[in-house]
Design goal:
- By secondary structure, the protein is an alpha+beta fold.
- The protein contains 6 helices and 7 strands.
- It has a 5-stranded antiparallel β-sheet, sandwiched between helices. A two-stranded antiparallel ribbon has the order 6-7.
- Strand 3 and strand 4 form a beta hairpin.
- Helix 5 runs antiparallel to helix 6.
- The radius of gyration is 22 Å and the shape is elongated.
- The protein starts with a helix and ends in a 5-residue tail after the last strand.
Length: 184
């Protein structure tokens, strides 16, 4: 009991979200930070309830990779967004390590989710800057260059991008527009 108390104190003092799952992947315990971030309760999260705070677009891949780790007993590692109580997604790097008995069987999993949202955003911004430099060097055709730039921004940083050009003595005009989904 004393050891368990020390563990919970340590886990609750971490800046990361942490959790414990059984060998079957059912999560039975989360640290305080998990509940502070997600705004959920243990009752909502027990078992596989964690799925409710995942981005539905990424959830199938998360479940597939987590299931594979459970089946193989290999560590789990993946970046994906989690929904905060503010209604916004933030990206986390999640790692789970299996704890095995003397026979090599998994008896539980310890998992930690580290907020990497800012690092990911900076990485994407740097990618866009690098791609934009390349776009500017490819053509002297202003319209084609602006369209290529809008395509880059929409594919990496936003759902859509509109570039307006303001010329002296004229009303601003839309020179390029792009949407992440090419059907729009």
């Amino acid at each position: 009991l004393e050891s368990e108390g020390k563990f919970r104190t340590l886990a609750n003092s971490l800046p990361q979200l942490s959790w414990i799952a059984g060998p079957d992947g059912n999560i039975s315990w989360y640290n305080r930070r998990w509940f502070q971030f997600t705004g959920t309760t243990l009752e909502q999260m027990t078992g596989w309830g964690w799925q409710s705070v995942h981005d539905p677009a990424v959830l199938p891949l998360v479940v597939e990779r987590w299931t594979k780790s459970i089946e193989t007993g290999e560590p789990f590692e993946m970046e994906f967004p989690l929904l905060g109580k503010d209604g916004k997604f933030r990206w986390f790097l999640t790692r789970a390590e299996p704890v095995k008995d003397s026979a090599g069987e998994v008896v539980r999993w310890f998992g930690v989710c580290t907020d990497v949202d800012e690092q990911r955003r900076h990485r994407l911004e740097n990618e866009v800057l690098a791609m934009s430099s390349s776009v500017f060097a490819q053509s002297l055709d202003l319209e084609a260059t602006l369209q290529s730039l809008a395509d880059v921004v929409a594919s990496k940083l936003a759902d859509w991008c509109t570039i307006a050009v303001a010329e002296p003595g004229r009303e601003p005009r839309v020179a390029a527009a792009a949407h992440r989904d090419p059907r729009h």
